[in-house]
Amino acid sequence: MRHYLIASHGTLAQGFYDALNAIIGSKPEISIITAYVDNSEIKKLIEKKICLIGADDELIIMTDIFGGSVNNLCMEYLNRPNIHLIAGVNLALIISIVISHDEDTKSMIENCIEEAKKNVIYCNDLTEPKGYDDF
Amino acid sequence: MRHYLIASHGTLAQGFYDALNAIIGSKPEISIITAYVDNSEIKKLIEKKICLIGADDELIIMTDIFGGSVNNLCMEYLNRPNIHLIAGVNLALIISIVISHDEDTKSMIENCIEEAKKNVIYCNDLTEPKGYDDF
Predict the structure, then answer these.
(1) Does domain A2-134 bear CATH number 1.10.600.10?
(2) Domain residues of chain A, as ranges?
(3) Quick check: B23 pLDDT over 60?
(4) In B63-123, where does DSSP find H-type helix?
(5) Is B77 exposed, middle or buried (0-12, 13-18, 19+ CB in 10 A)?
(6) Which one of A9, A95, A119 would you mutate to disrupt binding with B, by most B Cβ within 10 Å of its Cβ?
(7) Of A113, A114, B62, B97, which one has the greatest count of Cβ atoms within 10 A?
(8) Do B78 and A116 touch (CB under 8 A)?
(9) Inter-chain CB proximity A88 and B90 less than 8 Å
(10) DSSP category for residue B78
(11) Assembly ipTM
(12) What's the CA gap between B81 and B103, in Å, rounded?
């Protein structure tokens, strides 16, 4: 079984979780860590989540930003089996990850990341008519 | 002057705003719309924000997901001058947009989007040793 953890600075993980619920409904296998909102030690929260998953389960951790303290802490757990870490997620990426049933997790994550990148869009470019310079 | 609006389903915009504050500090020119959290009509909130900016000002709207109802509503305002709309933002993109002093807004946004895409990272790929298949 796959478990999911959204971890961020402040309430961003809660915001992702709420938006996710609004769009696809609640999924009990998704947890969040909102770092620095209270005095909880982030490492302990991550380890608690890891301990709770079964030996044959997988955990996909999704963080707000590469190089941030939350992602840096999560990097320390990548030597453990069945832990996957994605940094810099947007909502489209989280949705595609949690609804995927693709059995090859690594390949699934890589595909979802490529698709999510296409969904970062400067919408003005979609509406501008082509000018004479284009000919 | 540039103004910024982060708009999302639910509390996600608030989460982005909080994380932004935690990383770069507060900026009064950033507003948020958390759609469907209460009964506020989203169109009225967007129009209120547009009315408040000066004739020579710019508004950069950043939404959670392309194709979502919030972004769809914002698309209706792209015929107005000085409004820019980006869909599918992540935290790195919002940070780079709001700290940029590049005067060419269109070019700045396009560059920030390309950079943000590079910051969506499958971190397991950074730690895996190269196997013989790579040679």
Answers:
(1) no
(2) 2-134
(3) yes
(4) 69-75, 91-99, 105-118
(5) middle
(6) A9
(7) B62
(8) no
(9) yes
(10) T
(11) 0.91
(12) 16
Question: Residues 8-37, chain A: which have Cβ within 8 Å of B?
Answer: 8-16, 18-19, 21-23, 36
pLDDT band at residue A94 under the 50/70/90 scheme: very high
Please give the model's pTM, rounded to 2 decimal places: 0.91
Q: Are A78 and B123 in contact (CB under 8 A)?
A: yes
* Residues whose CB is less than 8 angstroms from the CB of residue B50 and which lie 6 or more positions away in sequence, other chains included: B59, B77, B80, B83
Hey, how many other C-beta atoms are within 10 angstroms of the C-beta on B58? 15
Higher pLDDT, B71 or B27: B71
Residue A135: its pLDDT value, please? 45
Chain B residue whose CA is closest to A9:
B19
**Residues with Cβ < 8 Å from A8, sequence gap 6 or more?**
A16, A32, A33, A34, A35, A63, A64, A70, B15, B19, B91
Please report, as a single letter, which amino acid is at residue A135: F
What's the Cα-to-Cα distance from A13 to each of A17, A62, A125, rounded to whole Å?
6, 9, 30
CA distance A93 to B90: 10
